[in-house]
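Office hours follow-up: a student asked to see two folded examples consecutively, so here they are.
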Amino acid sequence: MSRALPKYNKRRVAFIGGAAAVALSGAIVAGSALAGTPDRSSGTDGARTLAAAASGTITCPDVASRLPAVPASARAEVDRNLTLLRTQIQEANQRLADTVGQGGPNFVNNAILGPLKDKRVATVNRIATAIGRTAARPAGLDALAPCALDAGGTGTDTGGGTATGTSSAAPSTAATAQPAGGTVGAGVGAVSCPDVAPRLPAVPASAQAEVDRNLTLLRTQIQEANQRLADTAGQGGPNFVQNAVLGPLADKRKSTIDRIAIAIGRTSAKPEGLDSLAACTLTQ
């Protein structure tokens, strides 16, 4: 009996050792398999990156070209909101560039295009309200609020009458200028304005400095308008030049000419009819 026991113990030790070896081998195999399996969280990140915001340019319908004739009383507010439309698109394009590779399949629409549309609705409504105070309120401008992502990055006219993206297309040669500024695409020709200085009476010495300063300002205003014309070549619609260039220029010139007349009128007869020199035209 005492001799059989050691043999039994030896068999038990051998069996336990073999089992341990099998278990260890299984652990090694399992560990190797896990090491070759991609991490589930990293796979999710990869999918999110593939479905994320793509590079490109946000393009929006042009608002300026869709406006009717803007009353002088509303022009400053309309111009301010057209500028705001441009700023909104620039900010959205910057947001697009800053978030490339982020979010899921709806990221661009939810985080960029959707909020941009809401801002544009409010802005175009302010434009319509400003015009509607003294003229017929333009209808349907809300339809110009939604924008889209141009994955090619070429860009189109923005809601403020300027282009975004990397488009370098030249203005169409078919665009022709009209004296009243109603062109199919701005940028053809140059702004031409009546000369104010020859129409002035004798200027009192006490008013000479102020008159000269405002005559210089009139020249600067024309230069700025011509620069604006060049910068917006090929943009806008049939009313773009009138609404965005000639109209604001006429308002500036009227204020400047009034200052000239007032300066002369302080010590002499105030010249009459100078307001008729405020309006300018577009010449080829």
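And the second, which I mentioned at the end of office hours:
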Amino acid sequence: MNLMAGKLKSAIDEERAAAKAKNDLITGVSHDLRTPLISVLRFLEYVEKDRYKNEVELRYYVNIAYEKSLTLKKRIDDLFEYTRVSSNGLPLNMEPVDLGKLLEQLVEEFAPVLEQADMTYRIHTDMGPLIIHGDADELVRLYENLFTNAVRYGKEGKILDISVS
């Protein structure tokens, strides 16, 4: 009887912890979505009520609203991705992928972003093909995020250095 009571207490505690974590997540996500939305609404209200002084200021407000909208869209996309991954797992299309070739192609496509940040790149893939078993689309997402973070947080280094081994 004591063993069953202990298991029941553990199950109730776990359920409460899960409910608290869910509520904390909802609160955090609501805040993360609400913040850029409020900015968008404020700047659009300025435009709607003709509170701008000239067309330059109008464009400035519209640009800020646009940028905040992009932030909001990214956060919603991230939330969608999180729920997709956490609810039923991420369905992967596993296949042989040459990681070196994938990275070479991806960094070439990313070159304009690097150039805009006054950065260059070096990629070292001289060892020949490096075949891995993975989902090419998800690998592209992964490396795009890494490259974006390299620009955002490491542009003072001036070089994105990639080595495949």
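Two things to take away from it. The mean pLDDT is 86. The radius of gyration is 23 Å.
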